[in-house]
Fold this sequence. Notes:
The protein is of the alpha/beta class.
Amino acid sequence: MKLAVPDLISNSYFPAVAAVELGFFAREGLDVSLELVVPVEHALSAMKDGSLEFIGWSRDFLSGRA
């Protein structure tokens, strides 16, 4: 499975990055890879076409404040 984040700097995405890098998903039997996808709209398109399963993003993107 692919998990996309729009940046690797923001603290907003740290839990998702840490979960992948520290093997939390693997310990649960999930093969998850982290993918940097910028801008987040590209991640939405990738999810729609099936090439991406999950997107990690902050609530600001949903509310239009980003």
